[in-house]
Design a protein that fits this description.
The chain is an all-alpha fold. It has one domain: Alpha/alpha barrel (Glycosyltransferase), CATH 1.50.10. It is built from ten helices and four strands, in the order H-H-H-H-H-E-E-H-H-H-H-E-E-H. The strands form two sheets. Strands 1-2 form a two-stranded antiparallel sheet. Strands 3-4 form a two-stranded antiparallel sheet. Helix 2 packs across helix 3.
């Protein structure tokens, strides 16, 4: 907590709990309040630190919509709080939910509301109002930012959020949402990321194949797909074999992985050089691959009937 990058991020925080300017905190990208909560969680910040606590309370007050999900707002006025319910996105809600759970808020009713929104939006519960604009447009990860088609980036972020819900606290609805999301991510080859693409695109975004740290708000890479599925217990699925091979192919001769997407110059503080061996990306890869290996070995060791 006393060393960079955490120290510099917290030094830029306003005493009221926000970063850059008051409001929902989605903008400016990489420097807004919601982003800092994501980054601090990924860096292992202490959730009991008073500065972290006040940041979480600020996000509850200014980013959580009446529907329970966490929403963005980038229009005029740019500081409208809280955002309207139709402004909730799977990527943002999943990211903020994961951060809050990681920082120790699992028992808070406001977190429970965000979990419920996520599960209901995924399965298509009648209580959810879907957007006709850039928000969540329908069940199964439909998103206006993907031309209304199911968004795999949003699905990964949503499942990463739900993966942090303790197993004993997962309702049947949450479990149904997890199963729905996992089947969607496994319905295509995760190593090629050939998921539905809107706006006339015919090739997956190049960002799928650039491993980075920290994780951007809406961008996910192939490794993060494995991370989400592995945390939920799906790593033994044979459809993930190409992802494991792809992940290992990115390792250098000294056992390290490179940070190919570092967001240098965009955050409050640079974390690592772009294009250099990365302790953080290496940690990501080792955790995911180890979890996958453990699950596969466990499956093989089960006695056959």
């Amino acid at each position: 907590m006393e060393a960079d990058p955490i120290a510099s991020i917290l030094a830029a925080q306003h005493p009221c709990g926000y970063w850059d300017h008051p409001g929902p905190g989605y903008t400016p990208k990489f420097r807004g309040t919601a982003w800092q909560l994501m980054f601090l969680d990924q860096l292992g910040a202490d959730g009991n630190d008073p500065r972290i606590r006040v940041a979480c309370e600020y996000v509850f007050d200014h980013t959580q919509t009446k529907s329970g999900g966490f929403g963005y707002w980038s229009g005029a006025p740019a500081r409208i709080t809280p955002p309207p319910p139709l402004a909730v996105l799977h990527c943002l809600n999943g990211n903020v939910l994961r951060a809050l759970l990681g920082l120790g808020w699992a028992d808070d009713q406001r977190v429970q509301r965000a979990i419920e929104w996520e599960a209901r939006a995924i399965v298509g519960d009648p209580s959810i109002r879907y957007s006709r604009g850039r928000g969540t447009t329908g069940p199964g990860f439909g998103c206006g930012s993907n031309d209304g088609q199911p968004c795999a980036w949003g699905a990964i972020k949503a499942l990463l959020g739900l993966a942090r819900v303790p197993t004993e606290l997962r309702s049947p609805l949450v479990q149904q949402a997890i199963e729905h999301g996992a089947e969607f991510l496994l319905s295509r080859d995760p190593a090629t990321a050939a998921y539905p693409m809107g706006f006339g695109n015919t090739q997956p975004s190049r960002f799928w194949f650039k491993l980075g740290f920290p994780s951007g708000g809406f961008v996910a890479d192939v490794l993060q797909n494995l991370e989400a599925l592995a945390e939920l217990g799906y790593a033994a699925d044979e459809r993930l074999e190409p992802v494991l091979e792809w992940g290992l192919s990115k390792q250098d001769s000294q056992g390290r992985w490179t940070n190919e997407l570092a967001y240098n110059g965009k955050m409050w503080v640079d974390i690592e050089p772009q294009g250099s061996p990365s302790k953080w990306v290496t940690l990501r890869a080792c955790r995911a691959l180890k979890l996958a290996h453990t699950q596969r070995m466990s499956l093989r060791s089960r006695p056959s009937r």
